[in-house]
């Protein structure tokens, strides 16, 4: 799995996304931090004339700043697996004298290596910028360590999960779309279920401690959320301070579990991959029935949620509207999927 | 060297390969021929380890290639798609193949590029389709593999390059005792260079014979009778009508040739003459049917 040739092959396949990872992290972390420091310095040296004492000693950082990086992680996984399936390149890779398990694990190690390297270098640069610029007057770099504890395991989990999706998706586009859908599936599906229950007269107390705990859990299961929701804000001019960055350390078991399961199942499925179905929506024929059922159900619930208000208002919701919309959504999804599941995407023959 | 044992493969509910058996020895060029969609490419992709068989196994030097892909150090596969390495430059590919194949011969690779006048300092995407096909073949032979699998290798090559590359394959096989398995529609190529002819029909191996045996076991004749072809002749199992113009019939006799010619004579033909026969005649007679073979 550490074979030089596989690394070179992965480098060729994944290089656009790898560049994207490094450049986006650099732009949205150290470059942005340095920009903030320079702005603060300018304001300190040249304060507003009407309130010279209040130059803005505030600093804020949110994980949403690096959302582009998350897209590149998913893109990297899609380039490493999905692009090969779409361009006949699997014919080269699978004819080489390597075990399929090693091919898959080499892709995982390649991606994880670049994600960790990119994050560590750029977060370290951020810490140095905080330490040696005017930012040190406002904050210390400890929050970046906290961020590191969140962003590294969750990013690895997002990449691992997207790579796993690549073992069941038959082409680049389906891998990208399915990765996006399933990464937000826990939160999305719970929202659909809550909507379904509320339409049927079962109200949810959103403020009860158990619901809050459940929401936290679902947010952590929705891998991009803990990164995007990481917030750190400090303003010394009015002594306000926000740090919603901490998540219970036990939650870090979630990305760990995602990673372990994704790598284990991904390796198992990749070793049994059906290359004859490359280019299609799904690689395996066996799971198509279950997949179709799931998609139809989710579309029905989504259409029900969105269209349910047509025949009623917020206080008196119409079940007829809900079910009519759900039926339209389900039928649409069924026929759309029937077409898509047999469509084959191939480039470069 | 290569043993394909009882391989079956079903794709999307239809059986593409049905208990296929092939054995190839070193120093052999084998031509795999068959009509479109009979499973030639699928068979080659199974042998190369790209597709898994539902049943059976592919053994190379008695080692299962699907369970022990490391054995593919000595097997290379050249697909019919020429696009797979297009984002690479020549230098990058040399580095990659040198890292993959222990016996990759860089000096030999560059000497072949010179021999076939392929540019060395360009991206593969700038090559023409024929140049790409040639390049992939050169790459494959430079790995010093013992088994080379070529799927439609001469598509897109001009006649001069095609002749040179066919000559080159013959030289390589005679010098190194390697085995080349070629799938092609160009029967004249198989006729010129192959030792073994493997005919595949509807996923089954119809016959595996040497080219000479194939030619001696068939005879092409033209006959004219006073009326139409006698019923007795028409009912013979080993006689195929490959063409009819009026009362002039072109027949292909498969096996039992002398006895069959005797039967044709007994029906008092106005004309009975043997015609020169090509592999294409055998192909049409064995695998053809009515419609045009591409």
Automatic annotation (TrEMBL), chain A:
Keywords: Membrane, Transmembrane, Transmembrane helix. It comes from the Bacteria. The chain crosses the membrane at residues 16-34, 55-81, 108-130, 142-166, 172-197, 246-270, 290-312, 318-337. The keyword Membrane applies. The keyword Transmembrane helix applies. PANTHER family: ABC TRANSPORTER PERMEASE YTRC-RELATED. This is ABC transporter permease. It comes from Fictibacillus norfolkensis.
TrEMBL record, chain B:
Residues 2-227 form the ABC transporter domain. PROSITE patterns: ABC_TRANSPORTER_1 (PS00211), ABC_TRANSPORTER_2 (PS50893). It holds the Pfam family ABC_tran. SMART domains: AAA. One of its GO terms (molecular function) is ATP binding. Keywords: ATP-binding, Nucleotide-binding. This is ABC transporter ATP-binding protein.
